[in-house]
Write a structure and sequence with these properties.
Elements lengths: L2 H26 L4 H24 L5
Length: about 60
Amino acid sequence: MNLKRIFGAILTILGIVGLIYTAVTFANESADIKQMIVFGSLGLLFFIAGIGLVKTTKDEG
């Protein structure tokens, strides 16, 4: 069981959720601009970190 890959997948999923939440609040115009910037930047950060962690971790079998 490769914990780095699992952690990378969790970070990627959290990033996707953050980006989707930001898009939904932007479309509904129901949130403050600061809130959308914070959730969008955190979502993007988690997404990029998760993808990077999954890509750089080697499979050991």
